[in-house]
């Protein structure tokens, strides 16, 4: 799959094993998504899901004491009908 990823100009290929089945997650530039999806289909691959997802480039640590405040903010955002999805770059402080 990594060779296919290189051929289709994919940035990263991840192997995901769930319920004893293997799947691959291909990460590409959002502008290339449609082209990569088309090429994979033409090559005979089954596409289970295709979407643009924002990923944190620079994650930040969150002190455990701040977690309740962040959770409350998430809850407030989820109550707003205009909010469809929430993305952040916070990693829990361990």
Automatic annotation (TrEMBL):
It holds the Pfam family Transcrip_reg. InterPro entries: TACO1_YebC-like_2nd/3rd_dom, Transcrip_reg_TACO1-like, Transcrip_reg_TACO1-like_dom3, YebC-like. Residues 2-90 form the TACO1/YebC-like second and third domain. One of its GO terms (cellular component) is mitochondrion. This is TACO1/YebC-like second and third domain-containing protein. It comes from Caenorhabditis nigoni. The gene is Cni-taco-1.
